Amino acid sequence: MGAMLPVLFLMDISLGSVWIPLSETLRVLSGEEAEKTTWGIILLQFRLPRACTALLVGSGLGVSGILMQTLFRNPMAGPFVLGISSGASLGVALIVLTMGTLSGIAAYTLSTWTIVLAGSTGAALVLVMVVSVSAKIRDSMSLLIIGLMFASVTGAIVSVLQFFSTAEQIQQYLVWTFGSLGALDWEELALFSPVVFLGLLVSYAHIKPLNALLLGERYAESIGIRMSRVRLGIIGATSLLAGSITAFCGPIAFVGLAVPHLIRLLFNTSDHRLLLPAIALGGANIMLFCDMLAQLPGSEQRLPINAVTALFGAPVVIWLVVRKRNIGNTL
């Protein structure tokens, strides 16, 4: 997977509505001028930031997915079960669906930073509530149920906002929910990437507790692991990863749920010392490949990244589960 990563990265930035020869791509990446000036602009200003975003999104969602599945010992848990993504969606909905109703700013054009700030604020508010609840309860399954309830409440509020919104506002919000890897420029990546790297570092710091959790919370506590602190650290890492990705790129489905299962089945192990780096690499590879498919090389159209990840990934996971027959053996 490590060898595949640079290959897929180069293919992703070479393919698209305008095909750029691989030699010219390598030339631009090495700091030289491209044969055509437009090729250099396309690569440096559009495709390279999008490919870097795909790396961060794939790694972050994959790792946050394995964190939630291990913490809750639930194969259907994903990075969004705590309601963090729903909180970000609510923040964006409050801006997008109510902006036109506020006097004096009906014609205001929402910038990327406005969407990011709204999504980050919504995710942070839900995170505060989840952390407050986690400090008072000891059962992770109860925390899972509460997270799902937070997601249901925020989803209901979004539905009410949509009911009272115009068709244009609903369309703008719907486009955001499709997810996008191409909305970030270098300035936004400079803020987005450190947050994702911090979330990954916090995740790797919890490898030993994650392995202990495979045998249950009581076993983890019996060997001296403080579950309250570990639970808070895992929730914090997941919030950094899933919350920032949703705020910057929109809610991207499938990756966080399916990539951990895909890597577990391929490596046939539950050891997080191998799983975490493998999932980070696997998620990055899958996002790069899905981004290539979404570009529809040779066409000016782009498919929603959410649709591509599900259409490509779900059949692969179904095939692996049927082949292995019992996914519970690796969880």
Please give a structural write-up:
With 331 residues, the chain is mainly alpha-helical. The chain has helices at 4-14, 22-29, 37-72, 84-96, 112-134, 140-163, 167-177, 186-204, 207-213, 217-222, 227-249, 255-267, 272-295, 305-324. It is globular, with a radius of gyration of 20 Å. The relative contact order is 0.16.
Largest sheet: none
Beginning-to-end CA distance, first to last residue: 22 Å
- Which of globular, elongated, flat, extended, rod-shaped describes the shape? globular
- Strand residues, percent: under 5%
Q: How do the SSEs run, as a string of H and E?
A: HHHHHHHHHHHHHH
**Alpha plus pi helix count:** 14
Percent range of helical residues: over 70%
Parts with pLDDT < 50 across at least 5 consecutive residues: 101-109
Radius of gyration: 20 Å
Mean pLDDT: 84
- How many beta strands in the DSSP annotation? 0
What structural class is derived from the secondary structure elements?
Answer: mainly alpha
